[in-house]
């Protein structure tokens, strides 16, 4: 094959710029496909988990989602940047604060250790890898690749399988003394992402690893029972080191965790009326040891009172912007209800064309005919099926169909542009410069067939 020589510098710059723009578009597409899997190391307690359990303080938003430490996979060649390893690229910057005394340590010993993951959404998995800091790393410097032995001391090839909602690896941890950090990496198989958890561990000088679980909570009971909720309370557990939190289960499903080890009640909300439930509570400590379950608390929610009151009519219905040849955008003011608005129904004339949630106050009606007049009203409804009166009516006329031209290579297309190819019409999804081989039928990421 004869190599191509770009002797014209202007042409070269144009082609390079076009290529970079296209590459950026593809990168953005890939980046938006975040992994649906989420999880964290519960035992030995990871930095993020101990934040959520209240053992680590001043942690920022990670206390609400320790399962979300996600970044690109491929560590150490790729993945989070140096200085942002603990936060998985900086989304939770407080986790990147690093000193010898900043974080609570879990006591560990070298040799056989089990790492327990709690997985909130399982996903096809490539591997699980575990790294540890070098013996003489600097605990007062930001975590970097230079801090770690970059050969994982434990690596499990998962071959694209899906783990359960609890997953464990038993690994041989290398000999270490003093404060060390373990980095655990869960690599997802079918996305570009991985989950990163660091464990602050004390090897020696702090006694053996804590393997003693708290006692089971006692005297669990339910009170304040309504049609949609109840209060679960219990008596405190004890632990050889200290209880850091309580976990509340509805049957076998974890539904909540207290912010600390001193909270002894939980408000169970969002329950179904006239339904039986069984709740239990478990205590946990900083090392990730869970107690046995408390006594089971079984109760039945009350029957819901009959709701015969309809929501108020939506107000201020209007057309947003200019209608296209195939769509109209609408928005309206919120309705009120004695219990709560469940959703809104959009009518085209007398025909129901769309339903949206009770928190949605705008929508787009698509699939319309060009150069056609339409009239719309909106009604609110509640969970009991009561429907409001009509909103005000609005009319809109769709525009004439846009002119279309045949697809051609070496042409700049912007999102929304229509072209024809082999007798079909396609809409451009992403702005790009076309190339031979990128015909609309061949590149569905760039073109939508109409």
UniProtKB/TrEMBL annotation:
<keyword id="KW-0378">Hydrolase</keyword>
<keyword id="KW-0560">Oxidoreductase</keyword>
<dbReference type="Pfam" id="PF00041">
    <property type="entry name" value="fn3"/>
</dbReference>
<dbReference type="InterPro" id="IPR004302">
    <property type="entry name" value="Cellulose/chitin-bd_N"/>
</dbReference>
<protein>
    <submittedName>
        <fullName>Chitin-binding protein</fullName>
    </submittedName>
</protein>
<dbReference type="InterPro" id="IPR036116">
    <property type="entry name" value="FN3_sf"/>
</dbReference>
<keyword id="KW-0503">Monooxygenase</keyword>
<dbReference type="InterPro" id="IPR013783">
    <property type="entry name" value="Ig-like_fold"/>
</dbReference>
<dbReference type="GO" id="GO:0004497">
    <property type="term" value="F:monooxygenase activity"/>
</dbReference>
<dbReference type="Pfam" id="PF03067">
    <property type="entry name" value="LPMO_10"/>
</dbReference>
<keyword id="KW-0119">Carbohydrate metabolism</keyword>
<dbReference type="InterPro" id="IPR051024">
    <property type="entry name" value="GlcNAc_Chitin_IntDeg"/>
</dbReference>
<feature type="domain" description="Fibronectin type-III">
    <location>
        <begin position="313"/>
        <end position="401"/>
    </location>
</feature>
<dbReference type="InterPro" id="IPR014756">
    <property type="entry name" value="Ig_E-set"/>
</dbReference>
<dbReference type="InterPro" id="IPR036573">
    <property type="entry name" value="CBM_sf_5/12"/>
</dbReference>
<keyword id="KW-0624">Polysaccharide degradation</keyword>
<dbReference type="GO" id="GO:0004553">
    <property type="term" value="F:hydrolase activity, hydrolyzing O-glycosyl compounds"/>
</dbReference>
<dbReference type="Pfam" id="PF02839">
    <property type="entry name" value="CBM_5_12"/>
</dbReference>
<dbReference type="GO" id="GO:0000272">
    <property type="term" value="P:polysaccharide catabolic process"/>
</dbReference>
<dbReference type="InterPro" id="IPR003961">
    <property type="entry name" value="FN3_dom"/>
</dbReference>
<feature type="domain" description="Fibronectin type-III">
    <location>
        <begin position="216"/>
        <end position="304"/>
    </location>
</feature>
<dbReference type="GO" id="GO:0030246">
    <property type="term" value="F:carbohydrate binding"/>
</dbReference>
<keyword id="KW-0732">Signal</keyword>
<dbReference type="GO" id="GO:0005576">
    <property type="term" value="C:extracellular region"/>
</dbReference>
<dbReference type="InterPro" id="IPR003610">
    <property type="entry name" value="CBM5/12"/>
</dbReference>
<keyword id="KW-0964">Secreted</keyword>
